[in-house]
């Protein structure tokens, strides 16, 4: 792999062609740590190329890197799925998938939800594969983390923008509605995950992986509900404090 890196850096070997070669290698050695590590290095080169191109063109061709990143991400998801199907509990493949989400998908809500949907069938037919369910826990926890951050920003904005009482009330009402929609949506997906666990446990009652995933999802649901209540309490405190100052 060292020589292939040198060829890529010198411009002799195309990074995209190297990714194709790596995909072929993974069909025979789906768990090879060296292959996955090298693959991330190649992807990092492509990400840096896109960043430089965007900087040099000052955003005039900004759509091109975004489109290529999207294609790369979809390609990597397919590679990961193939490798996971060839080797049970392929931790290296699922870890690579997480890396791709972080660096190409930027853990956006849409990407996370798409992944929840696209991997649902896979785990349903691989009920003993702990790595697949661990990946879904990563998706759910990432969604929870995004919601917590967004709620904190909403509360901070409400407390900062207190120029007059009428404007304050309008902003706080709108902000509270947005936060509620986000939390309801998150809880909906957590409930769907619990329903999936229940269905699979009914069909495959003896699989420990399913019970562990169910317990972890239930714990996430409780944490999410607690976070929502805390955010609402902070909002009320901000309203009360502001009202007393206005009075």
Automatic annotation (TrEMBL):
<dbReference type="GO" id="GO:0008318">
    <property type="term" value="F:protein prenyltransferase activity"/>
</dbReference>
<keyword id="KW-0808">Transferase</keyword>
<keyword id="KW-0677">Repeat</keyword>
<dbReference type="Pfam" id="PF01239">
    <property type="entry name" value="PPTA"/>
</dbReference>
<comment type="similarity">
    <text>Belongs to the protein prenyltransferase subunit alpha family.</text>
</comment>
<keyword id="KW-0637">Prenyltransferase</keyword>
<dbReference type="InterPro" id="IPR002088">
    <property type="entry name" value="Prenyl_trans_a"/>
</dbReference>
<protein>
    <submittedName>
        <fullName>PTAR1 protein</fullName>
    </submittedName>
</protein>
<dbReference type="GO" id="GO:0005737">
    <property type="term" value="C:cytoplasm"/>
</dbReference>
